[in-house]
Each structure stands twice: as C-alpha cells, then as structure tokens.
Amino acid sequence: MARAHAAGASEGKVPSWVPLDQEEVVEEVTKMARAGATAAHIGATLRDTHAVPSVRLVTGKNMKDLLKDQNLLPQLPEDLSHLLRRVVHLQAHLARHPKDTANRRGLTLIEARIRRLSRYYKRKKALPADWHYSAETAALQVE
137 near 118, Cβ under 8 Å? Predict the structure, then answer.
C-alpha cells in the first residue's frame, strides 16, 4: 500500500484529498521550525494532523530546502545532533556507573558513528571543514 503512494508521489501530482496548498504548507513548516521542532517532527505532524503525505509533493521542495530558504536550517544535521545527545547522556551515566562496560562499549560505537557521519557531512559541505568531535565539548554542541 505504501508503495502505491510512493509511486504516485514520484509523478508530481498532489492528491485531491490534501487540504493544504503550497503556501499553507510552507507557513506550517516555518511556524513549527521557529517553535524548535525538528524536520522529522514537522513531517510527522504534517502527515498525521494535516493529511499532507509529502512536503516535496505539495511544495516542490524538500524539507531541508524549505528550512534553508527561511534561514531556519539547524547548524548540526539532525542525526548528528541526536547522536551527540546520546553521547552526553551516556557520559553522565558512565560518570555515575564507571563499571558499566557494556555501555562504555556502546559509547565507543556511538563516537565512531559520529566521526563517520562528520566525515560524510564535511564532504557534503553540511558541516564546516574545521568541525571536530570531542567528548568534552559534546555537551556544548547540543543545545
């Protein structure tokens, strides 16, 4: 069933049952982004409460481009900031429980994933070339 919707989405036709037009979708995206919502949360809210199956289908632009046009794009990509939040949480946990070796291993794996993602985002110019991950400054980088 989901594939049929995806096939229809690639045709570029907005379904007749979508209640919002392009300007209203852009307005909702801007309002939610200013309130601090992430792109994933904005998309889920539009889908669940406003019956918008795809921002790109209605507006012709993806969420990142809409946020960039409105100057609301976050400094860090969403997946990288979520990983940094997990690192900060695990660091606090390991400070309280230093013998928790399973979570220490998990912290190492998350840090490796952060380094791989940062290389990718530097290549794609989504992060500045001088951005570096360090365990000490992870809490400062996450708001």
Answer: no
